């Protein structure tokens, strides 16, 4: 008789997989991908290390799952901000502020997603999600051009410039490698966010906001 997996067994497997994901997410949020060692994840999840590899082909596959989950949450928040009231310029400013403020509230996860040195598989995921942000910004810029609140320009190019500017401007403040020099706790986060948004919006609209 062929082996048939029971519903109870499928549920147990699904629960174990979710525990692995949740514990890996916690490790990354607290110390970046470098701190998410398989032995540590297994201990937190209450499973054997071999169990992790039954659910994920490799460490890189597990990390890619975490990267997609975490980044999609951020993309969704930016998309949500773009539905707020006001013209396209106001909505873009709200979306950029959402991006920066959430990074300030979760600096280690933001660092892991934006700039932490990672394996090529995660770099590919990083590029995918940068494009996702750029596509959201591009649509808003096109809307702004049609509304007349944003000057005529290459919306696609401007959107990639916005993604690059806001991500790069956060790398230094978020970097854990600056310990002993300046830390995120030493930074006036409101002032930093305001400065980043001002730069982005002035570049986009040509006017001081």
Automatic annotation (TrEMBL):
<dbReference type="GO" id="GO:0000976">
    <property type="term" value="F:transcription cis-regulatory region binding"/>
</dbReference>
<dbReference type="InterPro" id="IPR001647">
    <property type="entry name" value="HTH_TetR"/>
</dbReference>
<dbReference type="InterPro" id="IPR036271">
    <property type="entry name" value="Tet_transcr_reg_TetR-rel_C_sf"/>
</dbReference>
<dbReference type="InterPro" id="IPR050109">
    <property type="entry name" value="HTH-type_TetR-like_transc_reg"/>
</dbReference>
<dbReference type="InterPro" id="IPR009057">
    <property type="entry name" value="Homeodomain-like_sf"/>
</dbReference>
<keyword id="KW-0238">DNA-binding</keyword>
<protein>
    <submittedName>
        <fullName>Transcriptional regulator, TetR family</fullName>
    </submittedName>
</protein>
<dbReference type="Pfam" id="PF00440">
    <property type="entry name" value="TetR_N"/>
</dbReference>
<dbReference type="GO" id="GO:0003700">
    <property type="term" value="F:DNA-binding transcription factor activity"/>
</dbReference>
<feature type="DNA-binding region" description="H-T-H motif">
    <location>
        <begin position="37"/>
        <end position="56"/>
    </location>
</feature>
<feature type="domain" description="HTH tetR-type">
    <location>
        <begin position="14"/>
        <end position="74"/>
    </location>
</feature>
């Amino acid at each position: 008789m062929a082996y048939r997996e029971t519903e109870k067994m499928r549920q147990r497997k699904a629960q174990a997989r979710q525990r692995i994901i949740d514990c890996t997410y916690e490790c990354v949020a607290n110390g970046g991908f470098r701190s998410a060692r398989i032995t540590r994840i297994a201990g937190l999840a209450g499973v054997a290390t071999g169990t992790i590899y039954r659910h994920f082909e490799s460490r890189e596959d597990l990390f890619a799952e975490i990267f997609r989950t975490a980044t999609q949450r951020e993309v969704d928040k930016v998309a949500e901000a773009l539905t707020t009231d006001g013209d396209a310029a106001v909505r873009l400013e709200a979306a950029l502020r959402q991006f920066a403020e959430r990074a300030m509230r979760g600096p280690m996860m933001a660092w892991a997603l934006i700039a932490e040195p990672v394996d090529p598989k995660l770099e590919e995921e990083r590029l995918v999600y940068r494009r996702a942000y750029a596509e959201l910004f591009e649509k808003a810029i096109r809307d702004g051009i049609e509304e007349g609140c944003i000057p005529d320009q290459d919306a696609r190019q401007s959107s990639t410039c916005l993604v690059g500017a806001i991500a790069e401007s956060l790398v230094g403040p978020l970097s854990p490698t600056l310990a002993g020099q300046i830390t995120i706790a030493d930074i006036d986060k409101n002032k930093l966010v305001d400065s980043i948004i001002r730069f982005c919006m002035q570049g986009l609209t040509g006017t001081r906001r």
